[in-house]
Design a protein that fits this description.
Number of helices: 12
Strand content: 5-15%
Structural class: alpha+beta
Strand order of the largest sheet: 1-3-2
CATH architecture of the largest domain: Orthogonal Bundle
Helix content: 40-55%
Number of domains: 3
CATH class of the largest domain: Mainly Alpha
Low-confidence stretches: 1-5, 179-187, 222-236
Shape: globular
CATH topology of the largest domain: Arc Repressor Mutant, subunit A
Number of strands: 7
Length: about 290
């Protein structure tokens, strides 16, 4: 009987994220943002808080593959650029950045969310073999090579299992103790809302506003918008790419004032609840609205 060979991984999990041989102020500024959980920073915000000659410095850093520039367009808004560090591998330090970002968004740090953040923010796509190596390293931290230079703290994590709303079990990762150079400690657990999907967990008034916003986007009422929707280009624009997380980002950027102040975790909660209630559905990686619900 043929058995498919197990995938191998060349990934090496390290303690801390290596710095460029020569100091790069833009990279250091991005590290400071990442320490606070801001792992993707708008180019506009970064330019205000960064070094002089920002455009030139950003181009140089991108050419040296030190940073990743991601372009996003939400609805008919102008294209936005987001800048993040470019990583070649996983370190406990970069994992702490990802977990901090999930805490800020009130999202559960399940493995799917962690992997997605590494790919989306740092341009690092982890294979199943790579991810297994990461989990094995977290469960046996003694196997991780020691840092080349002395650091002020030790990074440790708890790996547990919980039920995945999509079915089966999933690993969940939380930090233990100090995980930041700029923030003394963060809670080992935080109040995530994205996986609380019972009707009693949902803010029904905000959900109605969320649904009304999506209905207005998917089913425009003006004649001009309806004509655009009937065209191929208009139909494509009326889908939301990027799955649940992409839809949450879209609503946070373009929604009503009350929706824009929601965390990405709460918006993800609304989206998954809408999927469960057959209000939204997937077409590959796109989300589309189904029949009227409310």
């Amino acid at each position: 009987m043929y058995t498919e060979p197990e995938q191998s991984s060349s990934l090496v999990v390290t303690q801390f994220q290596p710095m460029p041989p020569e100091p790069v102020p833009l990279v250091q500024k991005l590290r400071e943002f990442a320490e606070k959980g801001e792992i993707m920073v708008s180019a506009e915000e970064l330019a205000k808080s960064s070094v002089s000659d920002f455009a030139q410095r950003l181009q140089e850093a991108e050419e040296k593959q030190l940073v990743t520039v991601t372009k996003r367009q939400f609805g008919n808004r102008p294209t936005q650029r987001f800048v993040s560090l470019r990583l070649a591998g996983v370190s406990l330090e970069s994992l702490s950045w990802v977990l901090r970002s999930l805490e800020r968004d009130e999202m559960t740090p399940v493995e799917r969310a962690v992997q997605s953040r590494f790919k989306e923010s740092f341009g690092l796509k982890l294979s199943s073999a790579d991810w297994k190596k990461v989990l094995d390293a977290l469960k046996s931290p003694g196997t991780i090579p020691p840092a080349e230079t002395a650091q002020s703290m030790k990074l440790e994590f708890d790996v547990t299992e919980l039920n995945d709303p999509a079915g089966g079990k999933t690993s969940c990762i939380y930090p233990k103790g100090k995980v930041s150079f700029y923030i003394v400690t963060i809670d080992h657990r935080w109040a995530a809302v994205d996986m609380n999907l019972r009707p009693t967990d949902i803010d029904q008034e905000k959900f109605k506003e969320f649904y009304a916003f999506l209905e207005g986007y998917f089913r425009p009422t003006t004649a001009a918008a309806a004509a655009e929707e009937d065209s191929k280009e208009g139909a494509e624009e009326r889908c939301v790419p990027g799955g649940r997380y992409g839809c949450a980002q879209f609503v946070k950027a373009c929604g009503t004032p009350r929706l824009r102040v929601c965390s990405l975790g709460q918006l993800s909660q609304f989206i998954q609840f809408a999927i469960n209630e057959d209000v939204l559905c997937y077409q590959k990686t796109l989300l589309v609205l189904l029949l009227p619900h409310i």
